[in-house]
Amino acid sequence: MLVQEKNNKGLSLLELIVVLSIVGILSAVAYPNFSSWYKEREVRQAAVKIHALMKNIAIQTEKGTFGYVQVLFSNDDDNLIVSSKGMTMQTLSTKINDGTDPWNTDMTGESRCNVTDTNYWDTDLATASSELKNSVYSITLSDVTTNFEGTGAICFSRNGKFYEGSDELAESTSVPYEFFFVCRRTSSQNRCPISFGASGPGDDGDELKAFEEGGEPEESSEEQSAVLPIPTAEAEYLRAIRWGRFGNFSIKLFNNNYTITTDPDTGKKVKMWIGGSWRS
User: Does 12 map to a domain?
Assistant: First the structure.
């Protein structure tokens, strides 16, 4: 009995070339979009993690776990480390009731938001209970950076009674800045191109001046709290975490604005960065 021979054929060389060409074209088109999405995702997730850490430790003061808490930021050429610390209600009460404790002095030029004394925060002590240690945590972020090198801290207490900043996050003495920047870390960018008092292209400076001087711009107090500096250069995937004396944590995204102009050297049309704006 004759069995019909199966007609099994592979791809011809021409068909293989066509398939590879199609795959190559699709990859070339899709990769830039995927790369941009992945980079944006890194910064977005980092901002969400920092936001969650800050919100969590501030909530601990309302729960009564701590009387005074700190969020400490440490940034170098490799990592951005964000950690939380806490002082118990008992320790805080002892300090307040002790007239000789520096806590109750003028503390001119100093801050209660201590970043140097390893025995200052109860959660740093070897004798701290597991409950206290489990109420604070630290995150290490290698793919993102901020606008400063070194340390900066922000401290909160219940009902906003004690609210201070330290080091890079202190605007003056212990008056805190109320925002923190996050952008992508690259081989050529170890710092976000923005400073706490920056005014970049596209910003007329009126709102920023009022913000810096503590004045009242022509807007509501709620809108005033949303005022943020503008980068001094193009900043991709830039985000800001905001807060206030009573918490009110939020995340904002910077939108770059561009205009089309003519390059005087080549005569070609080019895209030029002209600043941007913040949005929720």
Answer: no
Cα 167 to Cα 115: distance, rounded to the nearest angstrom: 8
pLDDT of amino acid 145? 96
259 belongs to a structural domain: yes
Number of domains in the chain: 1
33 vs 27, 36, 38, 247, CA distance in Å? 10, 5, 9, 36
The pLDDT, as a whole number, for residue 271 is 87
19 occurs within a structural domain? no
Residue 174 near residue 113, CB atoms below 8 Å? yes
Secondary structure (3-state) at 139 = strand
Type of residue at 208: L
Model's pTM, two decimal places? 0.78
**Model confidence pLDDT, tens digit, residues 216-254:** 334 334 434 447 999 988 888 999 999 999 989 999 999
Place of tokens 């099994």: 8
Token readout for 213 is 């001087």
Q: Answer yes or no: is 13 within a domain.
A: no
Spell out, as residue ranges, where the chain has pLDDT lower than 50: 203-226
**How are the residues of the chain apportioned to helix, strand and coil, as percentages rounded to the nearest 5?**
30, 30, 40
Q: pLDDT value at position 12?
A: 72
| Tokens coding 48 | 């969400």
Name the H helices within the chain: 13-63, 89-97, 130-133, 206-213, 221-224
Q: Which of 195, 73, 199, 197 is nearest to 144 (CA)?
A: 73
Residue 132: give the domain boundaries. Answer: 34-279
